Amino acid sequence: MSNSIPAIETRSLHKAFGDKIAVRDLTLKVERGEVFGFLGPNGAGKTTSVKMLLTLTALTSGEGRLFGAALNDPQVRRRIGFLPEHFRFHDWLKAHEFLQLHADLYHMPRELTRQRIPELLDLVGLTPHAEKKLREFSKGMLQRIGLAQALLNQPDLIFLDEPTSGLDPVGRRLVRDIIRDLRQRGATVFLNSHLLSEVEITCDRVAFIKQGEVIRVSALQELTRGELSVEIRLRDLQPESLVGLEHWGHNVRLDGEHLSLTLAQEEDLPAINRYLVEQGAQIFAVRPQHVSLEDLFIQIIGTDGGL
Amino acid sequence: MSVFTIALLTFREASRRKILLAALILGLIFLAVFGLGFHYITVEFEKDFSNQQLIQINEIRNFLLMAGMYVVNFLTAIMTVLTSVDTLSGEISSGAIHTLVAKPIRRWEVVAGKWLGFVGMITLYLALMGGGVMTFIYLRSGYLAPHPWRGLALIWLNNLALLSLSLLGGARLSTLANGVLVFGMYGIAFIGGWIEQIGSFFRDQTAGQVAMNIGVITSLVMPSEALWKRAAHEMQSPLAAVFGVSPFSATIYPSLAMIFYAVLYIGVALGLAIRQFNERDL
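Output (structure tokens, whole complex):
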């Protein structure tokens, strides 16, 4: 199979429940090896989109392909991992039995699972709980075992629906590390998340979805590139020197030892630094800050997007 | 094959349920009570009857066997419905089905696997209970029902009909609604069967025909009672078939065509369950 074929490709994917449109004309292309963030407020259609791609929910109209094959092709399913948002499993199974069940559904040979299951339990930090029934697990532990289940087949494409929602900071770091490893392995990650800070760290590209409609798709770098706000801690700067800073930026403000201004581009920072030193200022710290994804999310989605 | 993975999962899940454990414990208590009762009744009758009256003794043995098998049929039916009624609807509503269906498995394999898993459980339960009643009677008295295997097979078929209906309902309805549906259908078939049985004694031929028609129609809607009546016919003594008026015997019984219809019913219900599950959003 050619590497030029995208991992996910959809054309006008549409889902309606009666009068309510859950997803409207979703057209997306996610390339292989990408970590793709799918962002939107509650009820925007993120989970429904994933369910359509996994054929848990039928399409009302449109077309979707995974690695160039039909969505319901069992051969493609062998290459896919999935962690659902509401991780409810067969909780009467022990952790290792649960993983064995899902390994069997992937048709993995026993000699492979004998090695793979302990590895995964170790990866998600559940080795001491391998003999425990899932009904004794906390929410975070269930999410970890769900992650292990999604990684069993060393997927080429993995759908993670809110993978960090039940996790503590250590668990969140674990998810980040797993996503990093997946990317290094060349796997594609489709990430639904509310936690924009996680998305900011892990994703290559993001799509914003609102009321069932994708309203923007962009590389994360492109989104957060552009204006930069800078805070500089300094002493001995004369107020009349501030006018000279307007050559590079605007919103220039001096408040005691704190100078702040907004720059058009990050490349101007060394020149500003030199100018301030020439003006006799003593510089202790320079903190450039790009516009956060959260700010962008609010700008793009608005504050009325959620349900 | 994924069908067998799901079948094994279903069998293991059902076998760990408290409802099955309760059915097993109650079943064993029933076998113990039945065995004791049969033993002491046999002792009593053996005192009073001479060898020339063997026919009468066998009639009593057959009556007790039919009573035992009637309870076995009922207990197995209850166990079948209660264990299977939420297998699809419960996993759909909880979302546990999501990670299964997202695997390289076709949806029909999920339904067929669950069906097979429950068939395994029903077979074992029926073998234990029905086999237990018949074996005890044989070991204690040397009496064997006329056609024990046919009787057991028909009770088995009855439970397969209930199971298939339960899966069909579970692919579309909530657990509670499905339970109401399956028990409701079972109840309709039961009362229809009784109306038919009583109607066979009516002197008024028109009234008798109406009662018979009610029985036939309810058997078509749900063939469970018809299958029991055929099973009873196969297991009861010829004398009881002619004169017997008890809940455990059948003076009238369905034809072979009804058995073929029941097999078709099971196939169609399972097919519709698969279709329903294929089409629904999870």
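The CA atoms of residues 33 and 184 of chain A lie 8 Å apart.
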